[in-house]
Design a protein that fits this description.
Chain lengths: 81, 155
Amino acid sequence: MTNQALAEDFRVLETGSSFISKNAKEFGVKYQKKFIAVFDSNLIAVDGNFEVILEKIKKKNIDPSVVLIEYIPSKDQIVLY
Amino acid sequence: MKYPVQIRDIQGSKRLVLPILSRQPRSFGSFEAIIDTGSPRTILGASDSIKLSIPFAKYLSDKALSGFGKGNVPTKKIEKFKLLIRANGGTFKELFTDIVIPDVPSLRNGDNNTFNHALILPSLIGLDFLEINKLSLFIDLNNNLAFLEDSQPKT
C-alpha cells in the first residue's frame, strides 16, 4: 500500500473520529444503548444490535472494517474501563 | 514526535481516544481505542475484532479477562499485532503490540448476555502498549489537550 493510500485511510479515520467527538453529546441523547456507525463525516447506521448494524453497513456497500462503530451507553450509567 | 489523542466526552465522562489503523495481515481496517492507564494489557474489543474479521481459530487461548462486570471473558492472544498511528504533520509510526482479544466463537456458543456485554466493550490501550512502543502520554484536560509522544532516552 502506498503512503498516499495510507494517508487517505488516516484522513477517513481521523475525520470520523473527530465527527464522533464533536457530536458526542447529541449522540448521547439520541442513541443511548445503541451502536452508531460512522464513516468519514457521516453517521451511516444506528441500531441496538451489533449484528444488525453490520448488515446495515454492508447494505450500503461499505466495508465494515473501515467504519467506526461505537456503543453509546445509557445516560444513567457510569462506565468504568 | 507527537501523536494526537482525542478527548471525548461520553455521557459526561471524559475518555482519551486514539485513532488506529490495523495493518495486521487479513485484518486491515480502522478502529478507535480508549487509552486506559488502569489496564495492564491492550485489548481489541469483541466488536472491533469481528469488524476486522480476526481469524480467531488461528490464535491460542490466553488468560480469562476479568473486571468487566459479567464474570470472566475467555480470550485469545495475538502476538505482534501490526498497527499504525499518525503524528502531527502526517508521519506514520508502525507499531507491533501483543494484544488480547475476546474469544468470540466461544462467547457466541455461551450465554447470550455475556456475548452481548462483550460486544459493547471498547478496545483499550493498556500500559503495555506505552511501555513496549516507548511512548509517553501527556494529558491536560483543562486545556483539552492530550497526545502520545516518543519517549526520550534517559540521559
